[in-house]
């Protein structure tokens, strides 16, 4: 362990060079190299706009909660939207391209939710291109361009839209609307999703400081031409929005209202509302690390991404890759409830509640799935989309057999009640707890000795398929059943005697003092933590000696090459709670550093994959900080604040806005 720890610290120290990242302050991530570039999603919970290293261009736009069939197998996939913020910029009749710019740099402002790309074009001008998905206006976004001429120049700026291949029947139009003295030029594109499930529409206009310019359409672009004077900075913006028929009845007209609204507000009002919305998020939930700028940036970047991928009161959840890509088809997994949700519950409970609303809305479909497979109650799908039906590709056995997600959902509901102590809410959502409990008692098999087993499952360790009595599956079912009984007592609801009997007699196997990953486990390599989850976040194993034994045994069994990031976060929490500062910190670093990708350190799923941004891994790393070093513990009576454990590399840890009373806890 010592040698591993030293190597990780060494990597940490050299990481600014590895990732081309200038470590200037705690709120900004800067890049000055375009090599092996992985972008960041500028997202507002509704739309995610992924940055590109190309000048004046975005990589793609992801639309939250909008799904259509994929061409590969018809399985649903989250939809890419029309890219509507792109620009062609000519200076003195010379087009700016990727290969004719100099002094490229890009900065992500986590505080303000913006990405700014800066570069120079020959000896003529320097340009800044800032994009944002407006946090205050869900379907709205803006690109702001600042040009500083080095000599007198003439510019031509044209907005163009990119329609991804998966959209069809695209049509564009430019028209100038008029209301009394107000002229409102609007450029838009409308298209259908691949199998025609939804209509997608994007619309833009130009905003100017002072007097506006006359816009003209050239083929499929709209723009203007203007002469600029040497040294006199010039600013304009492309503003607009994107809407779909999933959210509004008439997406075309609603998308046109976005640029019309922007015209009346202007650049600064829109920008200030966006900044204020981000400021409110940071004021109500932040983590501050003193003495370790690298850790501070990475922890805040993880928070930034989680906050970017969801909005309160939208009844939406978060996919493993958030709004950064179509990874895992944008489906919702256990990743939400087990890995991302605990951080949101602690710091942004309204966001956490939205994840639960998403599940509550799909309870009937979970009941239907249970019925399809001959069980009672509700059986949540392994991969879920907007329908709530099973969305896992048919070739993946997880879709049928990785059933612990039903308990993961139930536990998340109980934890929200525990956090808020809101009995009215618990009464409203009682059906989720009851129906999932009914599933488990219909799913178990009674053994000859009176004990119960769950046969033929895939556990958290997905390398082991068709196993019996998987530790995490059984333990999460036990906790789910016990929580349901507690809720029934609070609400004076009838208690099914089987809930109690199964929760007390469902088997967790042990051999030679070690909790078994599953019945008959013989030390095989495992994909990720499974048994260790019984101590955290579950409360099934509480004996310190047993926790230590299981930790030491399974830490060496986890796939060191391709295992996902989450296991190290859990091990960090457990070692912190055991008081082992060095191991807790070592696993904390391991939870993100091998998975970081240039130039900003975005998360990939494993050390050997390149599929950022992996919000699941970010959630696990943040749990190491909050529930490990921070000393926070989820109990039936709400959050408990134990004495934390400060890594020796840090001077202090401050967690702001935690709990129902928005506490600030400090670990020194």
TrEMBL record:
<protein>
    <submittedName>
        <fullName>Trehalose and maltose hydrolase (Possible phosphorylase)</fullName>
    </submittedName>
</protein>
<dbReference type="GO" id="GO:0005975">
    <property type="term" value="P:carbohydrate metabolic process"/>
</dbReference>
<dbReference type="InterPro" id="IPR012341">
    <property type="entry name" value="6hp_glycosidase-like_sf"/>
</dbReference>
<keyword id="KW-0378">Hydrolase</keyword>
<feature type="signal peptide">
    <location>
        <begin position="1"/>
        <end position="20"/>
    </location>
</feature>
<dbReference type="InterPro" id="IPR008928">
    <property type="entry name" value="6-hairpin_glycosidase_sf"/>
</dbReference>
<feature type="domain" description="Glycoside hydrolase family 65 N-terminal">
    <location>
        <begin position="41"/>
        <end position="245"/>
    </location>
</feature>
<dbReference type="Pfam" id="PF03636">
    <property type="entry name" value="Glyco_hydro_65N"/>
</dbReference>
<dbReference type="InterPro" id="IPR005195">
    <property type="entry name" value="Glyco_hydro_65_M"/>
</dbReference>
<dbReference type="Pfam" id="PF03632">
    <property type="entry name" value="Glyco_hydro_65m"/>
</dbReference>
<dbReference type="GO" id="GO:0004553">
    <property type="term" value="F:hydrolase activity, hydrolyzing O-glycosyl compounds"/>
</dbReference>
<dbReference type="InterPro" id="IPR005196">
    <property type="entry name" value="Glyco_hydro_65_N"/>
</dbReference>
<dbReference type="InterPro" id="IPR037018">
    <property type="entry name" value="GH65_N"/>
</dbReference>
<keyword id="KW-0732">Signal</keyword>
<feature type="domain" description="Glycoside hydrolase family 65 central catalytic">
    <location>
        <begin position="300"/>
        <end position="521"/>
    </location>
</feature>
């Amino acid at each position: 362990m010592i040698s591993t720890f030293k190597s990780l610290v060494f990597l940490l120290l050299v990481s600014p060079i590895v990732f081309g990242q200038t470590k200037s302050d705690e709120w900004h991530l800067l890049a000055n190299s375009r090599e092996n570039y992985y972008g960041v999603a500028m997202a507002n919970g509704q739309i995610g706009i992924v940055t590109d290293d190309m000048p004046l261009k975005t990589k793609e736009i992801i639309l939250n909660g909008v799904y259509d069939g994929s061409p590969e197998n018809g399985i649903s996939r989250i939809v890419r939207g029309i890219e509507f913020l792109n620009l062609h910029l000519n200076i003195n009749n010379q087009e700016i391209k990727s290969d004719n710019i100099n002094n490229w740099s890009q900065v992500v402002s986590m505080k303000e939710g913006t990405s700014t790309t800066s570069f120079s074009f020959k000896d003529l001008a320097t340009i800044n291109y800032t994009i944002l998905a407006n946090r205050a206006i869900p379907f709205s976004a803006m690109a702001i361009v600042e040009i500083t001429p080095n000599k007198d120049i003439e510019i031509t700026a044209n907005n163009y839209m990119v329609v991804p291949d998966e959209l069809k029947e695209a049509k564009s139009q430019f028209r100038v609307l008029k209301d009394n003295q107000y002229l409102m030029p609007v450029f838009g594109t409308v298209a259908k999703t691949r199998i025609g499930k939804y209509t997608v529409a994007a619309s833009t206009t130009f905003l100017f400081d002072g007097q506006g310019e006359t816009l003209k359409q050239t083929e499929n672009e709209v723009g203007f031409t203007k002469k600029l004077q040497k040294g006199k900075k010039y600013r304009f913006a492309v503003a607009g929005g994107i809407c779909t028929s999933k959210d509004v009845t008439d997406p075309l007209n609603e998308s046109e209202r976005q640029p019309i609204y922007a015209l009346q507000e202007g650049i600064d009002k829109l920008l200030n509302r966006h900044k204020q919305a981000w400021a409110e998020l940071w004021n109500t939930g932040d983590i501050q690390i003193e003495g370790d700028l690298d850790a501070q940036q990475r922890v805040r970047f993880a928070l930034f991404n989680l906050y970017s991928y969801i909005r309160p009161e939208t009844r939406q959840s978060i996919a493993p890759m958030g709004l950064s890509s179509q990874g895992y088809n944008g489906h919702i997994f256990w990743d939400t409830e087990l890995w991302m949700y605990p951080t949101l519950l602690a710091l942004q409970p309204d966001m956490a509640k939205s994840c639960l609303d998403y599940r509550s809305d799909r309870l009937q479909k979970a009941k239907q799935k249970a019925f399809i497979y001959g069980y009672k109650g509700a059986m949540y799908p392994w991969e879920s989309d907007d329908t709530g039906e099973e969305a896992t590709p048919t070739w993946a056995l997880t879709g049928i057999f990785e059933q612990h997600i039903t308990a993961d959902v139930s536990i998340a509901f109980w934890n929200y009640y525990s956090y808020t102590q809101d009995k009215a809410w618990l009464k409203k959502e009682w059906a989720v707890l009851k129906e999932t409990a009914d599933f488990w008692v219909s799913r178990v098999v009674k053994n000859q000795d009176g004990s119960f087993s769950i046969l033929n499952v895939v556990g958290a360790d997905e390398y082991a398929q068709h196993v019996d009595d998987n530790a995490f599956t059984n333990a999460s079912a036990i906790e789910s059943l016990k929580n349901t009984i507690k809720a029934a007592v609070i609400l004076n609801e009838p208690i099914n005697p089987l809930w109690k009997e199964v929760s007390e007699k469902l088997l967790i196997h042990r051999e030679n003092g070690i909790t078994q990953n599953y019945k008959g486990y013989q030390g095989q390599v495992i994909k990720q933590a499974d048994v260790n989850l019984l101590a955290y976040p579950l409360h099934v194993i509480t004996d310190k000696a047993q926790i230590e034994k299981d930790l030491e045994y399974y830490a060496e069994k986890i796939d060191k090459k391709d295992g996902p990031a989450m296991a190290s976060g859990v091990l960090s929490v457990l070692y912190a709670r055991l008081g082992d500062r060095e191991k807790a910190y070592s696993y904390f670093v391991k939870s993100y550093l091998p998975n970081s990708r240039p130039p900003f350190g975005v998360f990939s799923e494993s050390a050997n994959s390149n599929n950022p941004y992996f919000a699941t891994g970010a959630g696990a790393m943040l749990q190491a900080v909050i529930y490990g070093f921070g000393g926070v513990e989820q109990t039936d009576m709400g959050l408990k604040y134990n004495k934390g454990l400060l890594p020796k590399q840090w001077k202090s840890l401050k967690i702001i806005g935690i709990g129902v009373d928005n506490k600030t806890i400090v670990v020194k």
